[in-house]
Amino acid sequence: MALFDYRSEKFTHDRFTGAAVENCTFLDCDFSGSDLTETRFIDCQFYDHESQIGCNFSHATLKDASFRTCDLTMNNLRNINALGIEIRECRAQGADFRGASFMNRISSRSWFCSAYIIKNNLSYTNFSKVILEKCELWENRWNGANVLGATFCGSDLSGGEFSSFDWQTANFTQCDLTNSALGELDVRSTNLEGAKLDADQVSELMGRLGIIVVN
């Protein structure tokens, strides 16, 4: 399915289930509640630059779905079921992921998460209270993102960019932060237990405390 333009459409539950959708434009469209399991979106536009309005995916099922080189700017992704989702090389500035679930719950005390959110512009996105444990989240721009109450424990956040970012508001224990621009990270107020840092990062962070690291 390719080269279609949709504007202000409300899609039926199974309109795109499992489909491969390429080079399509969706302007102010409503995917809310849709089953997009294993659907692949490639080079698609979900943002209207004139009206500055994104699309609505709230409560959609996006298990094992894929977005590659798409524009998800300002999209509503609240309360999606997104276990195994892939978002790769996309623009997603200002997208809202509050309530999104990347989790497979086995029991009340046992679960695992799965997501591949890689090489995206996530500036000013809202991941408040989202759980993304042990996920592939590398080489993203997180500038100004809201991560209040979020959990990234054990995830790969390497190669990221974190300016205007509040490290104190989320859980980054056990994370791989190597090769990342860490912005204003203060090791005195952020729990980095088990986190991976490279030598240059350690030297920079210690330098802010007046400690000189000698190689």
UniProtKB/TrEMBL annotation:
Pfam families linked: Pentapeptide_4
InterPro entries: 5peptide_repeat (IPR001646), Pentapeptide-BTB/POZ_domain (IPR051082)
Top-rank taxon, per record: Bacteria
NCBIfam families: penta_rpt_Qnr (NF033086)
Protein name: Qnr family pentapeptide repeat protein
